[in-house]
Amino acid sequence: MPLMYVNYPEDTFTQEAIDKLAMQLTNFGEDAEKIPKTPYLFSTTWVYFRPYPKELVFHGGKSGGRNVISLEVNVFEGGLDYAAKKEFYKKATDAIAEATGMPKDKRRPVYILFRDVPDINWGFFGNIIAINDLLVASEDEEPI
């Protein structure tokens, strides 16, 4: 059930690239958490794309420059181990690079930050939800 935010300068992605990348990130998140792939659980992974005007994106204290993209990934604390995160970093960076047309032989300005959120800090439909609640969800549960 990762909750992800892709932050990027405007005009970085086409709508077609966003659609494809959203599906890829959703799959990568589900794979990393190793939870059952039911339609309901698949629908609990959300990806938000947040463009910013290029002049409001600063790095090195200056606006403009390279299109640096950040991806914030909120997950259940303890839900992903080192290997799962490492694999996610690689897959997500490659997918973002492909979506933007970044050359494969150059360093890719993609920053990924995982936030391991304790169960008590996840609210869902008015209740606290834990990763174990997702593991026992019915296969017939209606997608969101």
TrEMBL record:
Q: Name the Gene3D superfamilies for this protein.
A: Macrophage Migration Inhibitory Factor
What InterPro entries does the record tag this protein with?
Answer: 4-OT-like_dom, Tautomerase/MIF_sf
State the source organism's domain of life. Bacteria
What are the residue boundaries of the 4-oxalocrotonate tautomerase-like domain, all occurrences included?
72-129
Which UniProt keywords are given for this protein, alphabetically ordered?
A: Isomerase
Q: Name one GO molecular function term.
A: isomerase activity
Name of protein: 4-oxalocrotonate tautomerase-like domain-containing protein
Which organism was this protein described from?
Answer: Acidisarcina polymorpha
